[in-house]
Amino acid sequence: MDPVKETEEPKFSVVRNPECEVIHVDGVYGTLNPATGQLTFYQDVPKVGIDENGLMSSKSIERVLVVDTRMSPEAFRSIAYWMMEHVQHYEKWMMENFRQQEGMDNDTDQEGSS
Fold it and tell me: What percent of the chain has pLDDT over 70?
């Protein structure tokens, strides 16, 4: 009998840290090298003012760094592959819906020309 197979798998659970927040991000800076991976997420916040005509206008944009994450190169790589898998599913879904919309538009055009 193999003693490795007799050992019980460790239990795994997911809990939410009370300080965990949901935030909107506009982009990310990152780096990967043999020692570490880093992703810094940011929000772009427009600074709005009133121009000489009394209209609101964007005077500048402030880039606010909201979270700086550090990880092993393997974790960085794993996240990148996981994200690309989701991107591929999204792109496939978008293409299918675009084709459906085109087909509906063509049907409408043909009905209108009758």
Answer: 89
